[in-house]
Amino acid sequence: MRPKIAAGNWKMNGTAAALSELDALSRALPENPPQVVICPPSPLLFRATDAVHGCPIQIGAQDCHAEASGAHTGDISATMIADTGATHVILGHSERRDAYRETDADVRAKAQAAWGAGLTAIICIGESDAQREAGETLQVIGAQLDGSLPDGATAENTVIAYEPIWAIGTGKVPSIAQITEVHDFIRERLAARFGAEISDALPLLYGGSVKAANAAEIFAVENVDGALVGGASLKADDFAPILTALAQS
Ligand code: PGA
């Protein structure tokens, strides 16, 4: 049985005042909650891990550098993230691939660093609108998967998030058939490289405009094991119903 995981990506939103949302979320968790990972901006990591102490919410970062330390002004390393008590790190989000020209090779090196620090890497992949229109979706996803995942991926150190770029923050959601097609494809591709045992155990999240209103039907897809949620993870009132939908899926 694969774990169900709901990850919240706060992106560049929230100051210390937003930590109260963690408290509210901990009180709103459903019965038999899924694994919940909140990824706040890095200045909040220490306080966030303190805030969730004793409740089943975990904390993650949104990026890391591939090296453990050094002359990299403005960057943070996986070791530093682990030092805060965080357990996860999002890597290769399309906003970073776009704004910082992160390549699959960059993401792969970062994943290796994350594993070295004992973190679970949430590796994001997804096609653009133009790539989907051109019928290249599976080819793009396959290449990103091959290039971004180091050898040695397991269900313990890796989570994959499929996030079509055109669905992020837009309110547009792929059809259930489109989500099913890509998630089935990812599962098969992982099986071909890592073997059926690892592929069957590795959690695959869908991301892009997930909300309480569409969560249940997305979670009903066989190879969807949870979600990576941006906008709807910022407020406990919005995120809690998504957790409930996942718990009941
Ligand atoms: P969204 O973002 O839920 O606001 O569409 C998802 C993401 O970027 O991870």
Task: Kindly describe this structure.
Helix content is 41%, strand content 15%. It is of the alpha/beta class and 249 residues long. The protein has a single domain (5-247), classed as TIM Barrel, CATH 3.20.20. An eight-stranded parallel beta barrel has the order 1-2-3-4-5-6-7-8, surrounded by six helices. Helix 1 (20-27) runs parallel beside helix 11 and helix 10 (212-219) runs parallel beside helix 11 (236-247). The mean pLDDT is 97. Residues 9, 163, 168-169, 207-210, 228-232 line the site of 2-phosphoglycolic acid.
Describe the secondary-structure layout.
Layout: E1 5-9, H1 20-27, E2 35-39, H2 45-51, E3 57-61, H3 78-83, E4 88-91, H4 94-99, H5 104-116, E5 120-125, H6 129-133, H7 137-148, E6 158-162, H8 176-194, H9 196-201, E7 204-207, H10 212-219, E8 226-229, H11 236-247
Parallel strand pairs: 1-2, 1-8, 2-3, 3-4, 4-5, 5-6, 6-7, 7-8
CATH H-level superfamily: Aldolase class I
Number of helices: 11
Q: And the CATH topology?
A: TIM Barrel
- Low-pLDDT stretches are none
Mean pLDDT: 97
The distinct bound ligands, ions and cofactors come out as: 2-phosphoglycolic acid
Order of helices and strands: EHEHEHEHHEHHEHHEHEH
CATH hierarchy, class? Alpha Beta
End-to-end Cα distance, whole Å, is 13 Å
Q: What is the number of E strands?
A: 8
Descriptive keywords:
TIM Barrel; 249 residues; single chain
